[in-house]
Every structure is written in structure tokens, then in C-alpha cells.
Specification:
By secondary structure, the protein is an alpha/beta fold. It is built from 12 helices and 8 strands. It has an 8-stranded parallel barrel, surrounded by 7 helices. Bound molecules: the ligand O=c1ccn([C@@H]2O[C@H](COP(=O)(O)O)[C@@H](O)[C@H]2O)c(=O)[nH]1. This is Orotidine 5'-phosphate decarboxylase.
């Protein structure tokens, strides 16, 4: 059997064809309410299916936030499984935003859940937390390589609280975030057209020129919309690495539902703004 095409190559093709925008599927209770849905499993299912049907044939990436599904227990997780399957079938790549991270032996079980192509929760990529040490992510890196999936490692998150951990200075004088970026660059070395191991770097963070963002992998950039960043901020935040940025917006698009055309128009506006900013 031939090796699966790596996530980085699939993502680059999707970004070239559709533009780099990622829309998050974050079924907040308040959004369910605004859409006229009950805050229950049926509401969750309707919300997710409407978003997938409106957007999966046009945006490069959809990013379900697992927490909003898990809050409904096993029935919510079943909706998450269907959401991923339907989004992928309709042509979008799916980043599972579950931010898993643990000691290596347990990380292997997370990898089996999200990165094994035979798992019901398999997605094209998974967000992971490296704060038990980057080395503890090894089982996820191996599983992703085997299945052609990707990882997005939390490096510089969009929230202000992340600073105290991520910008802490290590014994060798480098920051924790810079160390994570260096590990990613090592793992992506030589990959073409793009490595499969990306970083999460918030679009909210202002000038990041003190960090080497040239990791030869994608940079998932949440924070656009509800958290205050705009597509126009991207060049100043990411500098030359902006070509590898996957700008991500959730509530900024979702608040325009439940009408599918409202969701599509909003995503198209963000996509246009991203295109204008990157030109
Ligand atoms: O640094 C990070 C990492 C992940 N997120 C997630 O992205 C979305 C953002 O939602 P908005 O509605 O666009 O604010 C959400 O799922 C976060 O958990 C992030 O914001 N920052």
C-alpha cells in the first residue's frame, strides 16, 4: 500500500485552491440560543451540520472545538464524529481542536483516538499541548506521520495568559515558545511543499519578529474576529512567515448564522480581507 499523502502537502494544495481561511465550529450555548436552537444534543447537531453544509465545500479548513461537543458527553462526541466525517466528505480539511497533551505513554492513546485513520475521531490534524515537554509528543508525531495527519503544537497562544508560560526564559536563554518552534523546524526539515507539524500562533500578539517562525510548517492563527485581531494584522504579526499562516475565525463567522448564506457571506468577507492583506 502506498504511503498516505502528508498533511502539509494536502494543506498547501487546499490553501492554494481555496485560500488559507479556517473557520472554527464552536457551538457555544449563547450561539445555539442566538440561532434559535436548544442547548442540547439536537441543537448541537443542527448547528454543526448547518455550518458544515454552508462552508465545507469552500473553505480550506474547518476546526471543530472538541470541548463544545464533549460537554454533552458521549452523544456530543458522536455528533463530533459525524461533523468531522461530513466536513471531510464535503472537501474541507479538518483540524480537531482538542489540545491534547500528556506523558508519552498516555499520549499514545490520544494519538490512537485522533490520528489513527481507523479511529472514528480521526481528523486531518490535531492541536496538541507540549507543556509536558515536546518529547512527550513523540507518539503523536509518529502516528501522524503514519496516517498522513498533522499536528498543531501550542507555541504562542492568542490569550494574554499564555505569556507567563510561553515566554518564560529557559536556562540557555531561549524562551519556551522559541524552543517549541525550533523542535517543529527540526521535524519539518526538508519537507516539501510544507511540513505537517505546525504551530499555534495567535493573530492577536502583535510584532513577533523576535521569534523565528520559519518552521517550514503551517501556523494556525486563531484570534481573528471575537478576540479582536483582523486579517489586516497578519503581515505585521507574522512577517515573511505569513505565507504559511492559516488564519482562524470562529464566533466572527458563526454569529452570522443560522442562515447558511449569512455564514457563507461572512466567511467570504474574511477570506477577501485575508487575500487583500497577503497581496
Ligand atoms: O491560542 C489559541 C488556541 C486555540 N484557540 C481556539 O480557537 C477558537 C477561537 O474562537 P473565536 O470565537 O474565533 O475567538 C476557540 O476554539 C479557541 O479555543 C484560540 O482562541 N487561541
Amino acid at each position: 500500500m502506498s504511503a498516505p499523502e502528508p498533511f502539509g502537502a494536502r494543506l498547501r494544495r487546499a490553501m492554494d485552491a481555496r485560500g488559507p481561511l479556517c473557520v472554527g465550529i464552536d457551538p457555544h450555548a449563547s450561539l445555539l440560543h442566538d440561532w434559535g436552537l436548544d442547548d442540547d444534543v439536537a441543537g448541537l447537531e443542527r448547528f454543526s451540520r448547518t455550518t458544515v453544509e454552508a462552508l465545507a465545500d469552500r473553505v480550506a479548513v474547518l476546526k471543530p472545538q472538541a470541548a463544545f461537543f464533549e460537554r454533552f458527553g458521549s452523544r456530543g462526541v458522536a455528533v463530533l464524529e459525524r461533523t468531522v466525517t461530513e466536513a471531510r466528505a464535503a472537501g474541507a480539511l479538518v483540524i480537531m481542536d482538542a489540545k491534547r497533551g500528556d506523558i508519552g505513554s498516555t499520549m499514545g492513546a490520544y494519538a490512537a483516538a485522533f490520528l489513527d485513520a481507523d479511529s472514528p475521531l480521526f481528523a486531518d490534524a490535531l492541536t496538541v499541548s507540549p507543556y509536558l515537554g515536546f518529547g512527550a509528543l513523540a507518539p503523536a508525531l509518529q502516528a501522524a506521520e503514519a496516517s498522513g495527519a498533522g499536528l498543531f503544537v501550542l507555541a504562542l497562544t492568542s490569550n494574554p495568559e499564555g505569556r507567563e508560560v510561553q515566554r518564560a526564559v529557559r536556562d540557555d536563554g531561549t524562551t519556551v515558545a522559541a524552543t517549541m518552534l525550533r523542535h517543529l523546524a527540526e521535524h519539518n526539515a526538508g519537507a516539501e511543499p510544507l511540513g505537517s507539524f505546525g504551530a499555534v500562533v495567535g493573530a492577536t500578539l502583535g510584532d513577533l519578529s523576535s521569534f523565528d517562525l520559519a518552521v517550514n510548517g503551517p501556523l494556525l492563527a486563531p484570534g481573528i474576529g471575537a478576540q479582536g485581531a483582523t486579517p489586516a494584522d497578519l503581515p505585521a504579526v507574522f512577517g515573511p512567515a505569513v505565507r504559511n499562516v492559516v488564519p482562524s475565525v470562529s464566533r466572527g463567522v458563526l454569529r452570522h448564522g443560522p442562515d447558511p448564506s449569512g455564514l457563507r457571506d461572512s466567511a467570504a468577507r474574511f477570506a477577501d480581507e485575508v487575500r487583500a492583506a497577503l497581496d
